[in-house]
Amino acid sequence: MTRVAMAAALVLTIGGCVTREVQPDPILEMQVPDKWGGGASADVAHAEQLWPDTDWWKQFGSGELSSLVQEGQRNNYEIAAAFSRIKQAEAQARIAGAPLLPNVSLNAGANREMPISGGTPTNSANASLQVSYEIDFWGKNRAGVEAAEATLRANRYDRETVALTVTSGIVSTYLQVLSLRDRLEIARQNVNNAERVLRLVEAQSRAGSASPLDLARQRSALANQRQLIPDLQQQEQDAQTALAILLGRPPQNFKVEEKGLAKIQMPRISAGLPSELLTRRPDIRRAEANLAAANANVAVARASLFPSISLTGSTGAQSNALLSLFNGPNLFANLGTSLIAPIFDGGNLRNQQALAEAQKEELVQVYRQRVITSLSEVEKALGAIRSLEERYRLKVNEVDQARFAFELAEIRYRAGAEDLLVVLDTQRTLSEAQNQLGQIKLQRLQATVSLYKALGGGWQDKQVPAEPGAASTDTVS
Fold first, then answer.
1. Euclidean distance between CA atoms 453 and 448, whole angstroms
2. Alpha helical stretches, state H, 207-281
3. How many domains does the chain have?
């Protein structure tokens, strides 16, 4: 007991020689606005402040899309890999917690000696139980556990981030397939229009009222319309292949059943308070968890500068007579303590602490950047929705007028009151306007997907439930 007391006193003496004062980390303050900017449309800005549902893709009104999303969440390989990383982090957390418990080992053996010249054999046996335990006096082992647990949380948030990205990709790619099918249908209609005009020109050419130049021009216009179809077909096939990969399926036997965007509903959504975004996006929570792990690693590096104290003990028995192995006189026990203190290591431990602090500072900036980026993503999505809604409205009117102009030009050409160049010009204008309308409609739908994704896709951290109104402050620490 005297030796143990002396060792403890020595530990405290050495600890007093080391500067152990740890300056508190500065509070990380991010100034978050209390409302979204001017990019939101009137519907979004004045609607009830709501967040997307966890099954937000159902708002598009497609049963096939909902089925594909569920399949992708089950079978996507990136999500499966992220789940494997969670299991690795769980194992690392258990490994990090092992030093907090005593280490117990059992050694046992037996021996039988046979004299070469004859005589009675001699039997002997021994057994010992050894226990060692490192006193976590400076909190190094506890900080290691905290770092491992924070890393585990980061991996769980990473899995949710991957799942959100995959789900958004499935929805966006599915809408792209349907949009390409609409554009293919429009291209075929334009080919039919060009063929009808060509037949009219051929009839007038035979009657002598249309020149060979008119005939060549219309044949060229028809060929131009036809050449658009193979390219759109290839784009549709490529989009279906990309969708199959997201679902974890071989693309050869995969096919989307829906024919176009006609049955797809345009969701009406609204965003909650900007400050709530910090608890609604898993990538932000992942950045927070990485920062917590780095902070714990700094504590580990600091604690490594202090002495480590280990307690050891053993008990056992030894005897030349196997049957009397555990008799009282044969039992033994010993206790001891050891102290390991760094004296000179070439600055290795100090440099490790400096490295850990620099890594933490990097993650502070990464976290801040992640918050600013997430806010800007929501603003951009809201602004895109507003702009695309207006563009779509104007483009619908343009298509209606272009169709009327083409039909009127065809009628006038048939009556001999209009030149073929006017028919060709109105036909080209109609084709371009219809194609652009389809693209704007797809962009509007995909902007909604981007907004759902930027808002976290309805995700909320279940480990730390958000209190009502708790995230509505202007400053989030």
1. 9
2. 212-246, 277-280
3. 1
**Structure tokens, 279:** 């608890």
The span from the CA of 318 to the CA of 334, in Å, is 14
Model confidence band, residue 396 (pLDDT cutoffs 50, 70, 90) = very high
Helix (H) or strand (E) holding 357: helix 348-414
Categorise residue 369: left if φ over 0, alpha if ψ from -120 to 50, beta otherwise.
alpha
Backbone region of residue 33 per phi and psi (left: phi > 0; alpha: psi in -120 to 50; beta: other values): beta
Give the DSSP per-residue string, 90-134. HHHHHHHHGGGS-EEEEEEEEEEE--TT----EEEEEEEEEEEEE
Would you give the distance in Å from CA 133 to the centre of its chain? 40
Q: For 270-309, give the secondary structure using H, E and C.
A: CCCCHHHHHHHCHHHHHHHHHHHHHHHHHHHHHHCCCCEE
Q: Would you say residue 260 lies in a domain?
A: yes
Considering all CA atoms of the chain, what is the largest pairwise distance in Å, rounded to the nearest integer?
Answer: 135
Measured between alpha carbons, how far is residue 278 from residues 150, 154, 371 in Å?
Answer: 17, 15, 7
Domain boundaries, position 73: 22-102+136-306+348-476
**Which residues are CB-neighbours of 169 under 8 A, at least 6 positions away?**
246
Look up the CATH number of the domain holding residue 211.
Answer: 1.20.1600.10
pLDDT digit string, tens, across residues 315-359: 555 555 444 444 555 554 555 655 565 665 567 767 777 777 787
Residue 328 belongs to a domain: no
pLDDT in tens, 244-276: 999 999 998 899 999 999 899 988 777 667 777
* Residues 210, 212, 215: CA angle, nearest 5 degrees: 75
